[in-house]
Amino acid sequence: MSEIILKAEHLKKYYEERQGLFSRKKRINAALDDVSLEIRKGSIMGLAGESGSGKSTAGKTMLNLIKPSGGRVTFEGRQIFDADKGEYLDSGSMTALRQKMQIIFQDPSSSLNPKKNVEQIISAGIIKHRLCSGSQVRERCIEIMEKCGLDKRQMMRYPHEFSGGQKQRIGIARALAVEPSFIVCDEPTAALDMSIQSQILNLMLDLKEQYGLTYLFISHNLGVVEYFCDELAVMYRGKIVEQGKTADLFSSPVHPYTQLLLSSVPVSHPDEPRRHTESKPQDESIPKHGCRFAPRCPYREKRCTEQEPLLLPCGAGHTAACFHAVK
How many Cβ atoms sit within 10 Å of the Cβ of residue 204? Predict the structure, then answer.
């Protein structure tokens, strides 16, 4: 069994929201509610779900970019935080650890400093973590740029002079420059044209093999997830509802929400049978009791509105939180 590089246990993130513009009453929005995840070294773990399901919040909380409301995260055997006990790495130790934990953002246009050129953007992490001497920084930038499909003659250009795909390559180069072992990929192809998406994905696969990287790949594009990820966790309203090998989830999904998501994936050929799952329109309110998917579920039973299902085994390495799926 592969080594666990990152482990999240009972991760929680709650936000307070006003119930109305002029109301003093507040309600709790559970962006993450008891999320546990293990990511194996050298693998690609996918995190999928609708917008607002908590995917990006999960990735950023694991990196300690968002302060958690509860839970514990360890990276390479070292505890980053245990929010329930109030234990956090000090800022110096966390800064040093960030060299090994990087993120590629969804929108390359907003994640790159428009006032800095490519060399300054890529070299910032190299200089901060003192990975090489001053005279070698430029050589290191050129090496990383070429690995990411960028021309060294573009070093003095600024982000606005590049296309969307080129900007994302710069974002990947910036993350790769500090020699990380784990990268959170927060919908890295969502803002790109279809023709460019495959180029970026192939680049990321090549870099994974060259540098022995581990990815947490966050996406709502299941067509990409199916061919890119080794394992997959499906999230709904702050909770993981199904998890397992990607091939198993796509061939035999057991949770009604996973089946609903897969029914939205376009078929590759007109003669190919299309998955179809009935569902009621989404209700924005979250039930106080029971399963969160119950208001939309075609298999809803009485206990679904009274008890919350646990994430239980439903096959080899396959788990689901559903009374209908797990008997």
Answer: 23
Is the sign of the CA dihedral 171, 175, 176, 178 positive or negative?
positive
* Distance, CA of 43 to CA of 182 (rounded, Å): 10
Of 166, 99, 92, give the one whose Cα is nearest residue 132. 99
Residue 124 phi/psi, 5-degree rounding, is -55, -50
Residue with tokens 């061919």: 227
Q: How many helices (H) and strands (E) does the chain have?
A: 10, 13
Q: How far apart are the first and last CA of the chain?
A: 28
Contact 105, 186 (CB under 8 A): yes
**% of the chain exceeding 90 in pLDDT:** 75
Sheet-wide strand order for 4-18: 26-40, 4-18, 70-75, 78-82, 87-88
- Name residue, tokens 């779900």: 49
Residue 129 burial (CB < 10 Å; 0-12/13-18/19+)? Answer: middle
Q: Tell me the pTM.
A: 0.91
User: Residue 265 has what pLDDT?
Assistant: 67
Return the residue matching tokens 């039973």. Answer: 301
pLDDT at 1: 53
Per-residue pLDDT of 283-310, as tens digits, reads 555 677 899 999 999 999 999 999 999 9
pLDDT tens-digit series, residues 127-173: 999 999 888 999 999 999 999 999 999 999 999 999 999 999 999 99
- The DSSP call for residue 109 is H
- The neighbour count for residue 284, using CB atoms within 10 Å, is 6
Q: How far apart are CA 19 and CA 26, in angstroms?
A: 6
Dist. CA 322–CA 299, nearest whole Å: 10
Locate tokens 């209700």: which residue?
Answer: 283
- Written as six digits, the tokens of 66 are 């968002």
